[in-house]
Amino acid sequence: MVSIFNDVIGPVMRGPSSSHCAAALRIGRLARDLMDGQLNEVLVEFDRSGSLPTTHESQGSDMGLFGGLLGWDADDERLPDSAKFLADAGVHVRIETVDVGDPHPNTYRLTLRSSQVTHSLIAISTGGGMMEVIELDDIPISICGGYHETLLWTTPDAAARVAADVTHQLPVDELVQLPCRGQMLIQIKSSQFVPQAWIDEQMQRGDIVSARKLGRVLPVPSRRDMSVPFTSCAEMLQYAAGVQTSLWRLAVEYESTRGGLSDAEVVQMMVRVVRILRKSIASGLAGTTYDDRVLGFQSGRFRELMQSERLLDAGALNRIILYVTALMEVKSSMGVIVAAPTAGACAALPGAVIGMAEALGRTEEEMAQAMLAAGMIGVFIAQRWTFAAEVGGCQAEGGSAASMAAAALVTLAGGSLQQSVAAASLAFQSMLGLICDPIANRVEAPCLGKNVMAAANALSCANMALADFDPLIPLDEVIDAAKHVAERMPREHRCTSLGGLAITPTSLAIEQSLAQRKSAACGQGCGCGVTGQRPIAIQNTG
């Protein structure tokens, strides 16, 4: 069940792509837990027809996955060097491209070995840092990271007895029994792990053969009997019919119901996000450097010209462009950002909200209210479709960000619920068909321009909605239309670096130059992630 802080605003992370870095890190964390932290070898396989064979290194899948296998968080400052740290831990990694026909373009196939045990898992990155383990040791399973998961392997004749006993040990939210390699796998989802003392007792009796505990990786936990007041924009408008309320207040009600939180807790969670974002903007404006990137520090020059009034006068829009640029530069230099709704589209929404709020003299709590309104629109997108460019092109990232930002700006202006929704629809309509074609296979350009365009589009559509322009098409139908467009979009235009600007001669030359620079640096032992003679062996057979 979609959560604003799980699926839409977040995670707090480092790296160029949330569907690559943050999701891969969460998959790695679960894989580490599955192996009880004991790893000698890891085989990573990517399907040739997916997006990952051409993007896993340059867009941060390797960095994130290795960090997760080390047990790190998504904002750990060591992430750019995670390959080096994993090698130093004695873990041998091999990456291969295979022909298996995986239906999802962001599919990770992992084979994990220690001196005692071997496990395999298949997981998918679904966009914005969200993921799901869909297979474990050749058995269909679902692990999305919202629960503490206890996995118990039992003898077949003891499974029913163990399952009955465990339900008396703690409040179990869900229990599933699955046949597994001549044994029974009991999967237990709960807000806490099954007590270790009880597990030890059952193992001494011979009923439990082995056990693993996979920790929760999402900020807002799942629980039994979760509910939300509505799941679509149409349902929300019907729910609020005849009531004078705002989009941000409905967002608070939604998230408090979904997560079992108080209204004040929801608002304070978003205030903390706003503070992280403002700190990231300041970091970007102070100047950023990173070797493996396409664009340099540009926001400083923009600020200089803006302050000396040497740019065309665009009012608050220039401040918004400045903040969008600063956030994108932080992302590309491996600084801390918030995926809102993704890392590739991390700047349009917060840049627009914080830039406009500062121009209007608004407080951080008012910024948080606007971000919550945006989060509510994002819930409807996530519920019906995706944020992943690998599935939907940049219309799924930039289009979603523009839609969310437009609703947020109307909220800042004190507009009505209906005007917020109209702005979201207008902004999304004008972004349909947008492809994802990162230059030099880095999530920098034309991503910067698309984030600026999304923010400018949001501002225009917010003003149009405040003037009661008619969006004509309801938001839910616009989201469905975007999904249908994506189904007809070539794979080459969905974040594979196989089409559009990504395959222009200049783009290919930049990519080759970056690769040569990185290879030369790694030959000197820089620890950037390409391993050279280190004990970790990463090879792409594709």
Q: What order do the helices and strands come in, and which of them pair?
A:
Elements: H1 4-8, E1 12-13, H2 18-34, E2 41-47, H3 52-55, H4 61-69, H5 82-88, E3 92-98, E4 107-113, E5 118-127, E6 130-136, E7 139-143, E8 148-154, H6 159-166, E9 172-180, E10 183-190, H7 196-205, E11 208-214, H8 233-239, H9 247-259, H10 263-286, H11 299-307, H12 316-332, E12 337-338, H13 348-360, H14 364-384, H15 389-392, H16 394-412, H17 417-429, H18 447-466, H19 475-487, H20 505-522
Parallel strand pairs: 2-3
Antiparallel strand pairs: 1-12, 2-4, 4-5, 5-6, 6-7, 8-10, 8-11, 9-10
Relevant terms:
542 residues; alpha+beta; six-stranded mixed beta sheet; four-stranded antiparallel beta sheet; 14% strand; disordered C terminus
Backbone shape: globular
Poorly predicted regions are 525-542
Strand content: 5-15%
Q: Strands across the major sheet, in which order?
A: 3-2-4-5-6-7
Cα-to-Cα separation, first versus last residue: 37 Å
- Please give the number of β-strands: 12
Query: What's the Cα radius of gyration?
Result: 23 Å
Describe the sheet with the most strands.
6 strands, mixed
Structural class: alpha+beta
